[in-house]
Amino acid sequence: MALEVVKFSYLSEFLSLPVYHAGTNKRIGRLIDFAASTSQVYPRVTGLIVHTAFGKPPKYIPWTCVKRFVFKEQIGVELPPDGTEPVRGAENEILIRKTFLDKQIISISGYKIVRVNDIQLLIEDKSKEISNLWVVHIDIGVRGILRRLGFLRIVNSAFRWVTDRDIKDRFVSWKYVQPTATETLNSSVQIKMDSSKLSEIHPADLADILEDLGTDERTALILSLDYFTAAQTLQEMQFKNRLQIVESLEPEKLAPIINEMQMDEAVDLLDACENAKRQAVYTALPAEKTQELKELSRYSAYSVGGIMTTDFIAARPSETASAVLERIRKECEKLEMYRYAYVLDDREHLAGIVSLRTLFLNDAAALIADIMTDQPVSVQIDTRIRRVARLFFKYNFEAIPVLDDDERMQGIVSFRDVLAAFYPEIKEEETV
Known about the structure:
Helix content: 25-40%
Shape: elongated
Largest sheet: 8 strands, mixed
Number of helices: 18
Distance between the termini: 53 Å
CATH class of the domain at 313-424: Alpha Beta
CATH topology of the domain at 313-424: CBS-domain
Low-confidence stretches: 1-5, 187-194
Structural class: alpha+beta
């Protein structure tokens, strides 16, 4: 395949090129997109999407059929015996123009939403009969827009004359790109995406990114995450946006995410849903989880039972410091508060509290009964939130255990939960 000596090119320089039959030089149509495989580190172009005639669906021509390429002028192909085919391809093939051009993507390197103005392609070893094209960079700068409009040369010349320098390129490497949705070869939006890049982002940063997207894109990205990351991200979003996502999800897809959320957050979210949706989620959850959620939802919104979480680290007086530390290590990622272990007796009564600091400072074989703090401050499940707030300011605690009428431990309430209950606008406030 003859190619002009050029290392890099851009998608905009390929689009609308005429496609001819290499043998007869008969025009087939014009290029409207590339199909690319995402099974490698960088997507490799695997086919041409060619518009052949008005009113007819585009055709798919495998990249292996490309035999001649005159840069910025034309593409020559040698068609298979059965001619061009309707657009179709493997599951891991996407449409480059339709997926990226003028769309929003997530830049993993900067944790922000950026707009795609063009796509840089690498032309592989031109000594081969068939050179491969690889997607390597996403162009998010003004040069990409000017290139597509055909004004890059004249505008850049004027800019150089004024400033004595060229307009700067702004690229995002493919390895730092996560599309908000992908278009497959059958023109459908691929909702379930590889979230390996998104997993590198802290849930709070990911929530900020999702705030800048539309409801459909938010939902698509939430579904692309593992259940735990999805739950953590939802908890960091504004409640109104969180509720929009929840209302758009089917109960069977929502239930695993709810199952990973902190109990108080899950209760608040389900209580805001329509009854039919809430009951459907209950049905899809484990029976034990459903019972806990229903019990918490019965408490008054003005009492601590309405904002507490039932997830906490429990310990027994007879356990060793090393055993409790190991439990904290395994469970800390799923817990809102793991800096304290709450020591319970055989009847689930609160016997004491031991901090993470105390566990580290003592011998691994030390018994919890010997190092715990006796008679810890606690509140009843029906204690008013205002009184709990006073206790936080008095003792400077991070969390306070919550007991029922029989003095059995039911959960904990954190300073953050109390603050959010008193000043909900803090939680809803958008980051400037």
